[in-house]
Amino acid sequence: MIFDFLVKRRTGRKGDSTTKTIFKTISWRIVGTIDTMVIAYLMTGELTVAASIGTIEVFTKMALYYLHERLWNKYI
């Protein structure tokens, strides 16, 4: 909340800054990847399969989330 106030005050822009979007992307991906890995492990019983799935999805979903956030801030 303080970060939001300082960014908006300094830039006068609506929406999140690019830097904040990057940090949000990374933190959300950590949570999402742990969730994916736990579900994959529960479904397969294989730790290596769960780790493989988590490793692949972390990169694809970070890119998709970042693009989603930037488009959202631009058009909405």
Mean pLDDT: 84
Number of domains: 1
Radius of gyration: 16 Å
Report how far apart the termini are.
20 Å
Number of strands: 0
User: Helix coverage percent of residues?
Assistant: over 70%
Structural class based on helices, strands and sheet pairing: mainly alpha
For the sheet with most strands, the description reads: none
Order of helices and strands: HHH
Overall shape: it is elongated
Low-pLDDT residue spans: none
How much of the residues is beta strand, in percent? Answer: under 5%
- The number of helices is 3
Task: Give me the secondary-structure topology.
Elements: H1 2-11, H2 18-44, H3 47-75
Task: Please tag this protein with its features.
3 helices, mainly alpha, elongated
Quick summary:
Helices cover 87% and strands 0% of the residues. With 76 residues, it is mainly α.
Fold and architecture overview:
The two termini are 20 Å apart. The protein is elongated. It is mainly alpha-helical and 76 residues long. It has 3 helices and no strands. The chain has helices at 2-11, 18-44, 47-75. Helix content is 87%, strand content 0%.
